[in-house]
Amino acid sequence: MEFLLVILAAFVAYQIYVMVYFKSEKFNTLKRSVEAYTANCNDLNHHIQELKNAYVDINSYDYGKSTLQDNSNYNFKRTEWNKNIKNRYVHNCSATVCKNANDQPFKYLCKYFDIKVTEASLSSFEAVLNDFDAAEQGKVLLKQEHDSIVENIKNSIPAMIYRFNKEKLKRKLGFEQIDFSTLYFPVYTFQYVSAGGNSSAKCDITLDIDNLNRFVGYLSTLVKFKKSVAGQRALMTSALREKIKIRDHYACQSCGISAYDTKHLLLEIDHMIPLSKGGETTESNLQTLCWKCNRTKGAKIIA
Question: Where is each HNH nuclease domain found (predicted)?
Fold first, then answer.
């Protein structure tokens, strides 16, 4: 019992010590010394969140809304009816369609979520892939930058706090939390619920980085590139993103900042003539920009 009291007293004393430290002038001076770095990291974090919003808003057919109540006796309840979800990301279908969607997901995604097999659709999904890819890379680079900044001031931080309260230390320094979840990837569902309510099945199609790369390739085999010379056209895939960065020596073509000189630099691929203004996904129309220059450029054409 005495041992537990000693442990409890030590724990309380340590928590008081941590609280006092984070309120001390010494810590506040240290915080002010890295304010510019934390502000830059938080700005990048906001940019990553913006990139995550680049999804393609595709819908299934709208069959209207309703409310279903099963007033049957307990032994006759149609339990599977409760799984009959209605929203714009769910297509309610037969068991056959659900099975076929699992076998040929892209074909059925286009057919039942009304995705037109056109170059415009292909360009839209390429743009989404480009932004999602940058967001995923950005999360990793941002964490590395957080860790690097904290490591550089390690000698000015009490060893116990650095070891046991590193995440709290980052928050107190002003770093915003990085969202590492992939919940922003759109998920489209084919759902079957039997009329009797006794069986159900579903097929989920998640448009993550890998599936978006595959989907872009799938669409490209079906689309005729009317604007492209002799049908030749680059596909904005993860592989092409890396190819353009290598060509541009991992340097921003606007401000000149380079990943070789600046660690944890998020580089993005930009259409010099934006797709919205008639630009195409061709290597000659693509350039590497740092995230700040790309965000500033937006849909502008820079000569």
Answer: 239-295
Task: Give the contacts of 61 (CB within 8 A, at least 6 positions apart).
Answer: 91, 112, 114
User: What integer pLDDT is reported at residue 85 of this predicted model?
Assistant: 62
Please check whether residue 267 is in contact with residue 245, taking contact to mean a CB–CB distance below 8 angstroms. yes
- Residue among 89, 99, 72, 132 nearest 81 (CA): 72
Please give the CATH number for the structural domain made up of 228-303. 1.10.30
d(CA 297, CA 280): 17
Task: Output the CA–CA distances (angstroms, integers) from residue 186 to 79, 111, 192, 239, in the order listed.
Answer: 27, 17, 20, 22
Which DSSP string do the residues of 157-226 spell out, in sequence order? S-HHHHHH-HHHHHHHHTPPPP----TTS-EEEEEEE-TTSS-EEEEEEE--HHHHHHHHHHHHHH---T
Q: Which residues of the chain have pLDDT under 70?
A: 56-86, 225-232, 298-303
Q: Is 4 exposed, middle or buried (0-12, 13-18, 19+ CB in 10 A)?
A: exposed
Strand 286-290 with 267-271, pairing: antiparallel
Both tokens of 64, joined, read: 């209207």
So what's the pLDDT on residue 225? 67
Sequence-ordered alpha helix ranges (H) in the chain: 2-22, 25-33, 35-52, 95-103, 105-112, 119-152, 159-164, 166-173, 209-222, 238-247, 291-297
Strand partners for 92: 191
- The whole-number pLDDT of residue 120 equals 86
State the helix-helix crossing angle for 25-33 and 166-173, rounded to 10 degrees: 70
Amino acid identity at 117: V
Query: Which amino acid is present at 1?
Result: M
Q: In what order do the strands lie in the sheet with 200-206?
A: 90-92, 187-193, 200-206
pLDDT of residue 280: 83
Structural domain spans, the chain: 228-303
pLDDT score at 238: 96
| pLDDT value for 11 | 87
